[in-house]
Prior knowledge:
mainly alpha
Amino acid sequence: xxxxxxxxxxxxxxxxxxxxxxxxxxxxxxxxxxxxxxxxxxxxxxxxxxxxxxxxxxxxxxxxxxxxxxxxxxxxxxxxxxxxxxxxxxxxxxxxxxxxxxxxxxxxxxxxxxxxxxxxxxxxxxxxxxxxxxxxxxxxxxxxxxxxxxxxxxxxxxxxxxxxxxxxxxxxxxxxxxxxxxxxxxxxxxxxxxxxxxxxxxxxxxxxxxxxxxxxxxxxxxxxxxxxxxxxxxxxxxxxxxxxxxxx
Length: 248
């Protein structure tokens, strides 16, 4: 009888601690969401998105159309589903070069899970939410995005030149180290935003420079087609990127 009471007390204590932690995560997520909302509403950020809207919409629609859906579904899908968003992140090498796979997945969940589930429609991301996802990527990869912005604007640098490769080499080495240390930890979707207050339009511009999306419609199509034809399995892509930037 005493053992049963002890187990019951222990169970209640454990559940209490779990609820406390869940409440803390919810509060952290709300703080992050509020800060990102304010950031994306800043004039310089919204103006930057407006200046790139045409090509970003083209990229968005390309990936919306990249996933084939079963015949007979009861909804029209005009937004990004999880698979199409991950295709975008993979083909533009957001992972593993900028973020880990878990970080990219967490960004989709953080945005898509805010919306209520409707019938059997899968979780999706609208174009405006896609812009938010890009901002979240820039924030999480802020250190390298800021460096790439300076490289491009301050030093008239280009993608693939020696300084660019040095920047990526150092960042990739750091991400490799962080990933090894965090293998046994379950990263929460609200983590990785510690430096959100330091993010500016230049951070986002650094991401755009990394993505290398042209402004010409045909050039965007050519780039997307080339990326699709050159896509590699995750493990092989990770190995090749590491060799490209980290071996002298």
